[in-house]
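Long-time lurker. I teach an intro course on protein structure, and each term I like to show students one example going from raw sequence to a predicted 3D structure in token notation. This year I'd like something fresh instead of my usual example. Would anyone be willing to generate the tokens for the chain below so I can use it in lecture? Attribution to the forum is fine with me.
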Amino acid sequence: MKKSIVKNGYYIHSEGRSSIGVARKIDYQIELLSRHFHVRELEIKVANRKIGERIIGLMPLHSIPRNYDEVLEQMQSPDFVYIRKILADKLYINFLRSLKRKYPECKIVVEIFTYPYDKDEFLKWNTWPFYFKDRFWRMQLKDVIDRFVTYSDNDIIFNVPTIKTMNGVAVENITKVCRKNNKKTDVINLIAVANLQRSHGYERIIKGLYEYYKKGGTRKLFFLRCRRRQ
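-- Reply from a regular --
Happy to contribute to a lecture. Here you go:
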């Protein structure tokens, strides 16, 4: 009986560990992937830039310089790469093309953690240059990646087939906050298992509660945030 060969993969993110919440998710995802594959983490970093280079980098046909060549050189015969989404620009597309040319059998999977993401990513006026840049270049992703990973119900995103999944949490690392069933119907109990960041959509809950109380709702609200075990 032949022994199965463990596939070799790389988990790639762009300075994701600058955020505590994202760093935890990276750790969880790598831990899960490592149960089935040999996975190594690689980080794409933004290069130091002068003010003029920063301004030019905002233009749709220009790019934010990152250490793509260094990351590509560190790879050794990958069977797959898993990339946390990076806003598309020319250098990013070129990096993916170079990866595909060097390792044509390598499967490239890109995670979109919010879709559609335009309103979340480009809500503020100072992010609009990135909106036009991403709109221009993301349509070329269909030529260089194999799948999007999405938390939405979309089968196709930007003409790329998707892998649909859902957010999860390692429950063994969460301290219990509810020790018995609470059957009270005169209260609203909310439990959060994520950091309180804009991308997590807490404003939607707040808006819903506002509408509830505006229409005469009377139930008391209790909000509990789960903590990760140290």
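Some talking points for your students: The longest strand covers residues 8-13. DSSP finds seven helices and nine strands in the chain.
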